[in-house]
Amino acid sequence: MAFTSTRRLFLQGTALTGAAAALTACSQQSAEERAKQASAANEKAVEEQMKLPSTAWERVDYDQVADGGTFTVSISQVPANWNQNHIDGNEVSLSAIMETVCPETPLKASENGDVELDPDYLTSAELTSEDPQIVTVKYNEKAVWSDGTPVTVDDLIAQHKAQNGENEAFQTASTNGWSSIKEIRKISDFEAEIEYAETFPFWNVYLYPNLPKAISETPEAFNGQTTEPTLTRGPFKIDNIDATGGVITVKRNEKWWGRAPKLETIVFKVTTQQNMAQAFVNGELDYIEIADGDTYGQAKGRKNAVIQKSNGLSWAHLTLNVGGAEGALGDAKVREAIFRGIDRNAVARAVMEPLESPVILVNNFIYMPGQEGYEDSYADLKFDPEASQKLLEEAGYKKNGDVYEKDGKPLAFSIIIPAETKSSEDRARQIMTNLNAVGFKVDLKTVPSDKYFDDYVIPGRFAAVSFGWRGTLFAEQSSPNVYLKDSGQNFTGFAPEEVDELNKKIQTELDPKKRTELANEFSNAQAKAYTVLPFYASPTIIGLTEGFVNVGAAQFETTDWTAVGKKA
């Protein structure tokens, strides 16, 4: 996985086999009884998932990996923007490609999550002053962009100016971290002092540019990478982009200064969730991410393949647009009614049981279940249709037949779903079934899957959507981005006033214990906004052609793409 300063969004599949029976059983219990059972089951499931390895791939020494060959990877879409710092580039397909041609940070993470500098990019980085906080960084002078020009401090200075939030014309996914930097002082082309306006505990993420100066210098260049990346700096480079056919090919970068990659070529192939399993079984794909029971069942049937399962950092959710449904979702009571009207346990069971995985509800907006610091921010959130109806009545709605109305308008909205993603449709249908039983009028609107994020989610053209977020190793630094008022990743159009202030405190607090306390305050405040309803945590499940090594399912560990290949 990539370690980034932002969350990455992706389509996450579900399969709701047996959901109706589960709902029937639940209806015979009180809300309180269901809550107690769910809490106990959740704790047990967390314990079970923590038994999964952090890294599940076969580890082989570099010298024992065969030279050459092609590795074919499934992705969900052709990137809409090749700048991974742009709001349109903040998605998993691009992140997967960029891991091979332009890693976002100069850091490498181990199996247990320890982080160290990548010597291919940095020779040193030291905290040389605490008051003011100053970091002195030295670049590897051998590092070059794919056109052969050196990677220099000038590139970092330009990227800081583009992403620090001072110029709103730059459509950046996040300003977090960059906005904490007061000044970057150039000592030489390859050495700089980075001074922070306040203390900043995550300084090691922002030491190295992943964009050349030419891209960061102007909003036009920064926003306009819609066809291909201009320059990259990794062991591979972009060879061909077939946007029509949905195939991106990368090959060995002849200007790469580090250890030569074993693979000759990596092919990223756009495959719908509906077709991915069959393509894998047919041997057309070497690597797939599995998020639904149907794909899992088919992938297990391929003889010359392995299924790897590790702990993970992904979670699914429902996001509400506060301005959606003709303003009805602007009422917090309506949003709370939606949250209490959805049986999260039923959704989670139906998704995870076909994957032969623990059912784990996510009840925190910063930390994942089982992660140090995790606390329950939804202790009083129970599936309770009667409470949901009461909230609607308190908000001034009255039932007319089966649907609540106010001022002659029915309480109606659509859930936007991507086409050819049956499992996403199934998840939305579960939500629709629950809410229509309460008295909402919910329907589904299907849109092209390659337009789902770019044309609907990101510009806010929806009332409700459901997809997945993939977290990072730096939870306290990256997770708040999804909920901040001015963040390009907050698709709700709303943020509680206190979360911005709490985030400022999180980003400047050096004491880990105090930072954890602040992070949980942040999570509790966000929970009360009722804008994002978390569902379940997912393990990382990978289908892999047998024989490929040093790649696969991992929670924290950085893939070393120079060592990926077939075992000799």
Q: Please estimate the helix content.
A: 25-40%
CATH homologous superfamily assignment of the domain at 8-52 and 313-495 and 527-540: Dipeptide-binding Protein, Domain 3
* Rg (CA only): 23 Å
Shape: globular
Taken as a percent bin, the fraction of beta residues is 15-25%
Helical element count?
Answer: 16
CATH C-level label of the domain at 8-52 and 313-495 and 527-540: Alpha Beta
Instruction: Provide the structure class.
Output: alpha+beta
Number of strand segments: 23
CATH level-3 fold name of the domain at 8-52 and 313-495 and 527-540? Dipeptide-binding Protein, domain 3
Poorly predicted runs of 5 or more residues: 1-28
> Can you summarize the main beta sheet?
8 strands, mixed
The span between the termini is 25 Å
CATH architecture of the domain at 8-52 and 313-495 and 527-540, by name, is Roll
| Global mean pLDDT | 89
